[in-house]
Amino acid sequence: MHRVGGNYAEAICGASGCTPVLIPALGEDHCFDTLVERLDGLFLTGGAPNVEPHHYGGPPSRKGTLHDPKRDATVLPLIRKTIEAGVPLFAVCLGVQELNVALGGTLHPLVHELPGKNEHRMDRTLPMGERHHIRHPIVISPGGMMEELTGGEREVMVNSLHAQAIDQPAEPLLVEAVSDDGVVEAVSMPTAKGFVLGVQWHPEGREPLKWPLSAAMFEAFGNACRDHCAARDRARRGFRAA
Q1: CB 102 within 8 A of CB 79
Q2: What pLDDT digit, counting tens, does each position of 24-60 carry?
Q3: In what helix (H) or strand (E) does residue 177 lie, and over which residues does it extend?
Q4: Active-site residue flag, 84
Q5: How far apart are CA 186 and CA 146, in angstroms?
Q6: Where are the domains of the chain?
Q7: Whole-prediction pTM value?
């Protein structure tokens, strides 16, 4: 079954002003070049699986860890093709972990077990409607995309619903924010031809979308998608005229 949470689709439509289209996890059955040519932007959702550790040279997963090899085989090459083509990319939770691995970084599969780290996993004792509530602060790096999106604020509050997290950031990525216990919470790619932003928390829920930073991120992604679409259309018209 191929599916996506309603919050993601509603956020892309309502906050980014874009029409979401599901890309099924078909792995190598995709023609990635053709797919990327048709995309205005790529939004990577969160999800329950962990990236399989062989993709980043990590030790075998603990017994019972959930994986989705088809998603890995779809998303990791698609990320690289998307960035190469200058297509805007916005990644959330599992998506930012995939972004890091696709570009050569590594992950902690169970970050809460590391010395000095807080509990970052979803609190499953809470009702579903309360699991996306604010949990901890993040500290925003100066001079980056995230500081611009916050209007200059250097600390904001976010939620937390993950066990896996970035260990070694990929070389092209800039760390935009960290949690109060030092977990990487946001990255960008200043050298990319297009918009690239990944965050570890979940900004897409109905309550999180009311936070100014969430709205700003989705709006910036939507604007980048429209700009890319317009530039592609101009290039195509120029090709036909020639």
Answers
A1: yes
A2: 999 989 999 999 999 999 999 999 999 999 999 999 9
A3: strand 174-179
A4: no
A5: 8
A6: 6-241
A7: 0.95
d(CA 75, CA 61): 20
- Active-site residue (options: 30, 132, 162, 202): 202
Active site residue 18: no
Angle between helix 94-102 and helix 69-85 axes, rounded to 10 deg: 70
User: Which residue out of 108, 132, 204, 225 is catalytically annotated?
Assistant: 204
Structurally, at CATH architecture level, domain 6-241 sits in 3-Layer(aba) Sandwich (3.40)
pLDDT tens by residue, 152-172? 999 999 999 999 999 999 999
Residue type, 177: A
112 has catalytic annotation: no
- CA contacts within 13 A on the Cβ side of 227: 13
Choice among 93, 108, 132, 228 that is catalytic = 93
Q: Which long-range contacts (CB under 8 A, 24 or more apart) does 54-62 make?
A: 55/101, 56/101, 56/105, 56/106, 56/107, 57/106, 58/106, 58/107, 58/109, 61/109, 62/109, 62/110
The enclosing H or E element of 91 equals strand 89-92
Identity of residue 166: I
Residue spans of alpha helices (H) in 64-176? 69-85, 94-102, 145-149
